[in-house]
From TrEMBL:
It is found in: Cell membrane. Its main location: membrane. The chain crosses the membrane at residues 71-90, 111-131, 161-181, 223-242, 269-291. It is a multi-pass membrane protein. It comes from the Bacteria. Residues 67-290 form the ABC transmembrane type-1 domain. This is Sugar ABC transporter permease. Keywords: Cell membrane, Membrane, Transmembrane, Transmembrane helix, Transport. InterPro entries: ABC_transporter_permease, MetI-like, MetI-like_sf. Belongs to the binding-protein-dependent transport system permease family.
Length: 302
């Protein structure tokens, strides 16, 4: 019986482990190796260059510009998205009178907010490209109809506005999902806690600060990890929407775009692999720090 049990476990786990090694671990290992070579993507041989590609990254002004843009997005996109998501979810559940009743029609609002999740990022980028069009776009058209012609801009052609315009699209495309996520988290909070806060005379902000937010903090940490990963990527939106892409003057350059350009346009697959490895470790570091922070807070509360 005992040997039969081990044979069953081996038969169930070994195929999955083999598939994981072939299709997940093997590509990672290949990328790490290629980052130490000068492979062009088509040559039969790849010459070992050691850490040369990583040294070049430190001296590549365009790559450093991309790192700076990704760092800005890493801060702005998660904070704004989580802030809006928490506000809307709280209003739908706590915005009405009488504790946790919320506003009327909150279920319909959740459906409307979730609509952007039904579209791919490429489709969203195309649609917002039309919205930002300086001549026929919806945004400038709305401003002109309100008599605010002085506020019209070439949103994606201005170095000072292009990155903000891209981040606005990322926030718009993501916030609906997190409204639903935070709404589900708030639904799981016992009703008695809100009633107790109401009896103690707590207002909306006090209830959110002392009851709602502490009990959805774990969901906030998870949201920050996912949004941070999206901010470190942002390739699809930048590739489709921006001038260049990555312009103007590198204002919207991101690491994923630099990687794509070096690999598929310049034939520098070794150098592009070094960028991919750098992005991998940046993403891994973000996830570890966010999850460790959440674990530390849970231990303190315990």
């Amino acid at each position: 019986m005992r040997h039969g049990r081990w044979r069953f476990l081996a038969g169930a786990l070994v195929p999955a482990l083999v598939l994981h090694a072939v299709f997940v671990l093997s590509p990672y290992a290949q990328a790490f190796y290629l980052s130490l070579t000068d492979w062009t993507g088509v040559a039969g041989e790849a010459h070992f260059v050691g850490a040369g590609n990583y040294v070049r990254l430190g001296n590549d002004s365009l790559f450093l510009h991309a790192v700076r843009n990704n760092a800005v997005m890493l801060v702005v996109v998660p904070l704004v998205t989580i802030g809006i998501g928490l506000f809307l979810a709280s209003m739908m559940h706590l915005g009405g009178r009488g504790g946790r009743r919320g506003i009327a029609g909150s279920g319909a609002y959740q459906i409307v907010y979730f609509f952007p999740q039904l579209l791919s990022l490429v489709v969203i980028a195309v649609l917002w490209g039309f919205v930002y069009n300086p001549n026929t776009g919806l945004l400038n058209g709305a401003l002109r109809s309100l008599g605010l012609d002085g506020l019209t801009r070439s949103w994606l052609a201005s170095p000072s506005l292009a990155l903000i315009a891209v981040m606005a699209v990322l926030v718009w495309s993501s916030v609906g999902f997190y409204v639903v996520l935070f709404s589900a988290a708030i639904d799981s909070i016992p009703r008695e806690l809100f009633e107790a806060a109401l009896l103690d005379g707590a207002g909306g902000w006090a209830t959110f600060r002392t009851v709602t937010f502490p009990l959805v903090r774990e969901n906030v940490h998870v949201a920050f990890v996912y949004l941070g990963i999206a901010a470190l990527d942002a390739f699809a939106v930048v590739q489709v929407m921006t001038v260049g892409p990555g312009g103007p003057d590198g204002a919207t350059e991101v690491i994923g775009l630099s990687l794509y350009r070096n690999a598929f346009q310049y034939g520098k697959f070794g150098y592009a692999s070094a960028m991919g490895v750098a992005l991998f470790f940046a993403t891994l570091t973000l996830a570890v720090l966010a999850l460790r922070s959440g674990r530390k807070e849970r231990l303190e509360l315990a």
